[in-house]
Amino acid sequence: xxxGLTVLVPAWNEERRLATTVANVVAAARRHLSEFEVIVIDDxxxxxxxxxxxxxxxxxxxxxxxxHATNLGVGAAFHTxxxxxxFPYLTLVPGDNAFHESGLDAVFALVGKVExxxxxxxxxxxxxxxxxxxxxxxxxxxxxxxxKPIRDAHSLxxxxxxxxxxxxxxxxxxxHIETLSTLLRGGVPxxxxxxxxxxxxxxxxxxxxxxxxARLIVTMTRQFLRFVVFRExxxxxxxxxxxxxxxxxxxxxxxxxxxxxxNHSVRAS
Length: 269
Fold this sequence. Notes:
This protein has 8 helices and 9 strands. With 269 residues, the protein is of the alpha/beta class. The protein has a single domain, classed as Spore Coat Polysaccharide Biosynthesis Protein SpsA, Chain A. The strands form 2 sheets. The chain has a 7-stranded mixed β-sheet, sandwiched between helices. Strands 8-9 form a two-stranded antiparallel ribbon. α1 packs parallel to α4, α5 (129-146) runs parallel beside α8 and α7 (175-185) runs parallel beside α8 (210-229). The protein is globular and about 50 Å long.
């Protein structure tokens, strides 16, 4: 089984945390993976995040940077990275350094040994009470939608790229609900592993905004209708693992142009 991993690091105004996050990601990846890349997505930041990201791409050859002109949200960042991924597996690590490096070690150690990795937070009380409540509700709903007794539906994941590219596109915060529920309903095998949160992981989170919560509810409701009410079956097409990547160097910056089309082969039958 292939072991290459694409790590997406979305960041919005994370000038103080981004360097630590990327350094931890690179260190853990070097310990466990023979092939990997890190794509930092600067999501329209108006602080020094872009400058920090550029310096990281110079320091670490495995790091490239994509910039959104405006703040589009983590779901859009996920899909930006998904279209550019050149390895068969993909994960998203928030740029706010929410997860301890030991959790990255646990996740990266499983890449290539199982098709999908679903983590659960071993110290959920590091979250605020409202975030814990949101996570509990999301996890219970995911269990109903997928029929799988997963421990946490709101943490880190490793997705198979060819399967994830066939999931209907969701650029909102509910991208992980859409992707995880579809892959689980499609029978993708997975392993669960605990991860640790760093202190005050919610200090820069925007998830508790009413608009974000409303979109999460809409996404989960849609998945409930698809899979529980209408009993939609999920089938994935077998497609090549990676799209060709054209690399060019501009000054000291590396840019990659990859826009493989999404293959929306998930269908009801």
